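User: Can you help me understand a structure? I only have the sequence.
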Amino acid sequence: MSRVQSLTIREFMSGDYPKLDPLMKRIVEHLERNKVRYKIVGMTIIVFLTATDIALASGTGIDVGARKIYTKLLVVAKWVIIIKGGWDTINNTVKGDLETAKKSFLSYLLVYVILLALPWALSEVDSVFAGM
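Assistant: Let's start by predicting it. Here is the structure, written out as tokens:
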């Protein structure tokens, strides 16, 4: 029982038409009131459906799954740093601003070194607290 209604631009702009039927109005109001909850539930469902083999806490352990994720993240981050850092460095060099080019290169290099050193640093912190 769908009903199609044609409106002129003047009617549409003035708002002289039936907006929503009561059921649709209640549904829209409900969604507006609870949109944060629905976003959280939606993201949770997405994470559980897409990452089923990543975070298994039993058997292999969560650290192994996290290391797999971090390895993939490191590969992507490496190429992002190479492309973006190279672009910024070359762009600054072409403009003749060698000082900014050096700073840009060193900042991207520092980010990459931090990404490489992060697992080691976290394992060191874990060993400190495991010894207590």
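Now, to help you interpret it: The mean pLDDT is 77. The chain has two domains: 9-50, 62-130. Let me know which part you'd like to focus on.
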